[in-house]
Amino acid sequence: EKGDFDSTRQNFFRAALFGIDATMKWFNKTIPVQKLILDQLLPMAKEGLDKMNIHMEDSERYLKVIEERVKTKQTGSKWTQKNFTSLLEKSTKFEATTSITRALTKKCWSDEPVHTWEKLEVDLGDDHKHFYTVRHLMKTDIVTLQEDDILDLAINLMVWKNIRYVMVENNRHQLVGLVSSRKLIRSLKEGWNKNLFVKDIMEKEIITVLPSLNTDEAVALMVKHNVGCLPVVAQGRLLGLVTERDLIKMAHVTQKFKA
Q1: What residues form DSSP beta bridges with 24?
Q2: Nearest-CA neighbor of 166 among 244, 249, 241?
Q3: Measured between alpha carbons, how far is residue 181 from residues 33, 151, 189 in Å?
Q4: What φ, ψ does residue 214 adopt, rounded to 5°?
Q5: pLDDT tens string for the chain (259 positions)?
Q6: 10: three-class secondary structure by DSSP
Q7: Cα–Cα dist 2/13, whole Å
Q8: CB 208 within 8 A of CB 234
Q9: How far apart are CA 15 and CA 23, in angstroms?
């Protein structure tokens, strides 16, 4: 019936929005989902599995996991959310995300039910190994243009995104140049020409690095060549970008919690 379908649809959206904290419509009653699962759905599931002659040890094992997860209200998303909030008190957003991702990767192979997962602690003993290479420091959300784009487009992008460098690619997605705020300011000083294209102002001699490069070497390259960014390229393709902002942030983070 239409009423049953409406209730089912509402239950679906409530579950998607609120998870284990949702309330459900169940035979014209509003019931917290935790109570619904423990008092109604798990006994029904047990009865159904018994009728299907599922081995008792197997059914009890998996139904017990669901029961404990519901009782503790610890789902994977709840665990992630709580730990992210907790880790932010003693670390940065990047470190918190890295710690959670590392833990999730490890735990997914441990065969431990999520309700048994412990609270994460900030590990200050690893000397921030996730900053050792350019791969873990570079930005991958990169603004790119093509040579025949008008220069005004580059300027508007830099203002909108609050960035100082725009990468220039060709039709094969190969890096052919970059537009920097330094070059724009110099051109403005020399007299602005609104008819300029990106290719008229872009820098073509670019220092690029591999994602496996050590961050110390990246810093040395930027100092040696007096550049403010290093495009990260592999097999001819642009993968990311490291700027002096990223390196300064990295230096700040790796010293922040050391006495």
Answers
A1: 31
A2: 241
A3: 55, 12, 12
A4: -65, 145
A5: 445 788 888 889 998 888 888 999 888 889 999 999 999 999 999 999 999 999 999 999 999 999 999 999 988 888 999 999 988 877 767 778 888 888 888 888 888 899 999 988 765 555 455 557 888 778 888 889 999 999 888 888 889 988 999 999 988 888 999 999 888 888 777 776 778 899 988 999 999 999 888 888 888 999 999 998 999 998 888 999 998 888 777 666 555 544 4
A6: helix
A7: 17
A8: no
A9: 8
Radius of gyration, CA atoms only, the chain: 27
- Residue 254 CB partners (closer than 8 Å, separation 6+): 127, 128, 131
What distance in Å separates the CA atoms of residue 60 and residue 54, rounded to the nearest whole number? 10
Beta carbons of 20 and 75 less than 8 angstroms apart: yes
Q: Which two tokens stand for residue 226?
A: 């007096």
Q: Which residues, other chains included, contact 87 with Cβ-Cβ below 8 Å and sequence gap of 6+?
A: 95, 96, 99, 100, 120, 122
CA angle 177, 182, 187 (to 5 degrees): 90
Cα–Cα dist 186/220, whole Å: 26
Whole-model pTM? 0.53
| Cβ–Cβ under 8 Å, residues 207 and 191 | no
Look at the alpha carbons of 15, 19, 22, 24 in this order and tell me if their dihedral is positive or negative.
positive
